[in-house]
Amino acid sequence: MRQSLTDWLQDKRRKHAQGQLEEADFDELEQLLSNGRIGRQQLLYLQAGSTSPLSRVVGMALFMPGERHDNYSLEAEEFPYQTVMQAVEDGWRIVQFPAPPTDFSDQSVDYVGFEFILEKWGHGTRA
């Protein structure tokens, strides 16, 4: 179940207005709360073309609570954000800015881009 609290509330308000709210709807909320989909930290690693939050995203990995992370990288077509700032505007908070590489050699390191680490609390959907 990939549903945020905001989406859940919107759906249930609609059902309530139509007189269709049921006990099962509250069971659904309980499940959302108990399996960590609401109120737990999500981490988003964004690799950008520079240290600027306005630079283009070139790589991304998303870590969700309660999910296996064997294959956590997203393909470029799946990137929900083109820039780091777009993620910030969508509620993600930057918790670490990238530092420019020192003594970088493309022969010694597989370096994708300047890595920003962002977090989001309280929502249970992918970015």
Give average pLDDT, whole number.
78
Order of helices and strands: HHEEHEE
| Number of structural units classed as domains | 2
Number of strands: 4
Looking across the biggest beta sheet, what order are the strands in?
2-1-4-3
Biggest pleated-sheet summary: 4 strands, antiparallel
**Residue fraction in strands:** 15-25%
Multimeric status of the protein: single chain
Q: What is the distance, rounded to the nearest whole angstrom, between the alpha carbons of the first and last residues? A: 15 Å
- Helix amount, in percent? 10-25%
> Overall 3D geometry?
elongated
Helix/sheet category:
alpha+beta
DSSP summary: helix tally: 3
**What is the C-alpha radius of gyration, as a whole number of Å?**
18 Å
Uncertain residue ranges: 123-127
Descriptive notes:
This protein is an alpha+beta fold and 127 residues long. The chain folds into two domains: 38 residues, no CATH class; 89 residues, no CATH class. The chain contains three helices and four strands, in the order ααββαββ. It has a four-stranded antiparallel beta sheet with strand order 2-1-4-3. The two termini are 15 Å apart. The C terminus is likely disordered.
Summarize the structure.
With 127 residues, the protein is of the alpha+beta class.
